[in-house]
Hints:
Elements: H1 7-18, E1 22-25, H2 29-34, H3 41-55, E2 61-64, H4 66-70, H5 73-89, E3 93-100, H6 104-115, E4 125-128, H7 138-147, E5 150-156, H8 163-166, H9 176-188, E6 197-201, E7 219-222, H10 234-238, E8 245-249, H11 251-254, H12 260-279
Parallel strand pairs: 1-2, 1-8, 2-3, 3-4, 4-5, 5-6, 6-7, 7-8
Helix pairs in contact: 3-5, 3-12, 6-7
Amino acid sequence: MTVLEPFGARLRRVMDERGPLCVGIDPHAALLSSWGLNDDIAGLESFTRTSVEALADTVAVVKPQMAFFERFGSRGVAVLERAVADLRAAGTLVVMDAKRGDIGSTMAAYAETFLHKDSPLFSDALTVSPYLGYGSLKPAVDLARESGAGLFVLALTSNPEGGEVQHAVRADGRNVGATMLAHLAGENAGETPMGSFGAVVGATLGDLSSYELDINGPLLAPGIGAQGATAADLPAVFGAAVRNVVPNVSRGVLKAGPSVAALRDAAVRFADEVREAVAGAV
């Protein structure tokens, strides 16, 4: 298997070149309708093709939401496979938002699906859920290292329900979210310019100074745009770790469609806003 340069190094370089921004591709029914498209495979193909044309070679990272393609069955997955290939061919990193999490051979199979170089869904990184225990992610961690890919582990998510698990306090006095961050810091120890194992940390969570966010790895930060956070909020939320933050915007960019030019302009505007906010904080 051909081994890529580690994801963390590739991500650092493309963030510096294109601006630190991830744009989600989330073809849900309401968004297809707002673009004048039917909620069918033809609408999905048109939406995805337009999004890829606008975003490839423009932003650092694109994050397709797997569920919105899976709902169309094998034909929807085929659309996603083509999108992944086209984005990666343009030098845009793909983070597959599949939030997989299981144990043993099942987790290994999920890892093979998204992190093996020969898979048609091979992505530069994968979102994963650690809530069967961080150790359950070992097959994905191992294969990511082998292939030069990365992971984004759910740690402190922006959905209000997440707190009942992520803020639960362990016997050692540390809560679950902080424990996940500590595991990731261990995975990334000694890596330069940063490690490949990141955390998902919501940009809408306010002051996170009680957490050790400097895990020497990327922080994927949903919540910019439609969820209410702005680029200007990032330094206050992430503090000294803000340079490694990859804010995710979905609806804030996608609502500009179906015009390719308008989508591209929206993405560039968000990227510029994030770049300016980060530059002013470091």
